[in-house]
Amino acid sequence: MKVGLIISTYNWVEALSQVLYSIKCQSYFPDEIVVCDDGSRSETKNFIIGLQKNFPCKLKHVWQEDKGFRAASIRNKGINELSSNIDYVVVIDGDMILHNKFIEDHIRIAEKNCFVQGGRALISKNATMMIFRQKKSNYGFNLFSKGLSNRLNTFYLPFLSNFFGKPNKKLSGIRTCNMSFWKDDLYDVNGFNENFIGWGREDSELAVRLYNKDKFRKNIKFSGLAYHLYHEEKSRLKTVDNDKLLFQSLNSNSSWCDNGLQKVKK
Fold first, then answer.
1. What is the pLDDT of residues 59-85, one digit of tens each?
2. Other C-beta atoms within 10 Å of 191: how many?
3. Phi, psi of 201 (to 5 degrees)
4. 87-113 in b/e burial notation, b at 16+ Cβ within 10 A?
5. Angle (deg, nearest 10), helices 239-252 and 202-212
6. Which of these, 164, 265, 259, 245, lies nearest to 203 by C-alpha position?
7. Domain 3-252 has what CATH class?
8. pLDDT tens digits, residue range 191-211?
9. 131: enclosing H helix or E strand
10. Cα separation of 29 and 126, whole Å?
11. Is the CB of residue 135 less than 8 Å from the CB of residue 200?
């Protein structure tokens, strides 16, 4: 199947360069990548342009004006930018260093009528600064690597993945820093709800609508590994408003949002 990778970013080329380097090390390349830029300065665009000619797969850049944290909107722009032949969409954040079999693992565990939720190990502030100083790392993270937390998420035991990947409809631990979807499923529910402004809950609300469309979640354990670079937490002032939008979807049993991938009512 044809795979598209969506990467969200904002004014952090230093981290994005590490993420893209880890993609160059993949055992299986996505067919195309869209860097989804939530209003960065021109540095990010120029950086992507400089990589496009020699990158091992198609590399695109989409941008929107900086009007605050609008992850739902910019991810939708990225999904709409994917070529028509893309079947499957992997979504990460622009601060996630990927295990070299990350894309291969997401493809392996993909199942019709399911989306996939992966985990992450957390890289400490000091370890993150060390990675930036080295410019390029072999990313040989393991259980004993210094500067990591969530160490359970560093075990690479892919033969156990299917045992832990039973379809379910849980909402806990939904994070678009490491998720994947069938593209048709995203269009069936109209993608991310762009009414979500500020940090939080746009990913959980998407999951609710997928559940309401009779789709299921699969957890990818002991594979699909990713390592989250340290940064200060984003403002959570909008969480209360976003919680209200999430509860509306929970209570309405709706599988569609009007302000999504397509700006039309169904």
1. 999 999 999 999 999 999 999 999 999
2. 26
3. 80, -15
4. ebbbbbbbbbbbbbbbbbbbbbbbeee
5. 0
6. 245
7. alpha beta
8. 999 999 998 899 999 999 999
9. helix 125-134
10. 30
11. no
Residue 3 corresponds to which tokens in the numbers above? 């795979």
**Structure tokens that stand for 235 in this block:** 């403002």
The phi and psi torsions of 98 (rounded to 5 degrees) equal -100, 140
CA distance 141 to 232: 22
Cα distance between residue 265 and residue 37, in whole Å: 27
Token pair for 259: 């302000």
Chain center to CA of 126:
24
**Does the reported pTM lie above 0.85?**
yes
Task: Write down the domain spans for the chain.
Answer: 3-252
Question: pLDDT at residue 265 above 60?
Answer: no
Q: Helix, strand, or coil here: 248? A: helix
Own/partner pairs, 68-71, CB within 8 angstroms, 24+ separation = 68/197, 68/198, 69/10, 69/38, 69/197, 69/198, 69/199, 69/234, 69/235, 69/238, 70/38, 70/39, 70/194, 70/197, 71/8, 71/38, 71/176, 71/192, 71/196, 71/199, 71/202
